[in-house]
Amino acid sequence: MSTHDEATLNTNYLTATKGWKSWAFTLDHKRIGLMYLVFVLAAFLAGGIFALLVRTELMSHGPTIVSGPTYNKLFTLHGAIMVFLFIIPSIPASLGNFILPIQLGAKDVAFPKLNLLSFYVYLCGATLTLLSIAHGSVDTGWTFYTPYSLQDPEAATKVLYMTLGVFVLGFSSILTGLNFLVSIHKLRAPGLTWTRLPLFIWGMYATSIMQVLATPVLAITLLMLVFERVFGLGIFDPKLGGDPILFQHFFWFYSHPAVYIMIVPGMAVVSELFATFSRRVIFGYFAVAMSSLGLALVGFIVWAHHMFTSGMSEFANMLFSALTFLVAIPSGVKVFNWTATLYKGSISFAPPMLYALAFLFLFTIGGLTGLFLGTLNTDIHLHDTYFVVAHFHYVMMGGTVIGFIGGLLYWWPKMTGKMYHFGGATVGAWLTFIGFNVTFLSQFVLGSRGMPRRYYDYLPEFESLHRVSTFGAYILASGLFTTAGVLIHSLAKGRAAGRNPWGSVALEWKTQTPPVFQNFEQTPIITKGPYDYHLASDEELVEDLYAPDAAE
Amino acid sequence: MSSPSDATAHDAHPHEHPSYVQHHFDTAAQQYDTAKLGMWVFIATEILMFGGLFVAYALMKAREPDVFIAGHHYLNKEMGALNTVVLLFSSLTAALAVRSSQLGKRNETSAWLVTTILCACVFLVVKYFEYSHKIEEGLLPGRYFGHPFFDMSAAPAFHEALPSRANMFFGLYFIMTGLHGLHVLIGMGILSWVLLRNIRGEFSAEYFTAVDLGALYWHLVDLVWIYLFPLLYLIG
Amino acid sequence: MNAHAHHDDGKVHAHIAPALFYWGIFGALIFLTFLTVAVSYVDFGAANTVIAMVVATIKATLVATFFMHLLHDKLFNSIVLVMSFVFLGIFLFLTSEDMSTRNQLDEANGARRYVKNGEIAPSAFPHTMVVAPHAEGHGEGHEKVEGAHH
Question: Residue C143 burial (CB < 10 Å; 0-12/13-18/19+)?
Answer without folding.
Answer: middle
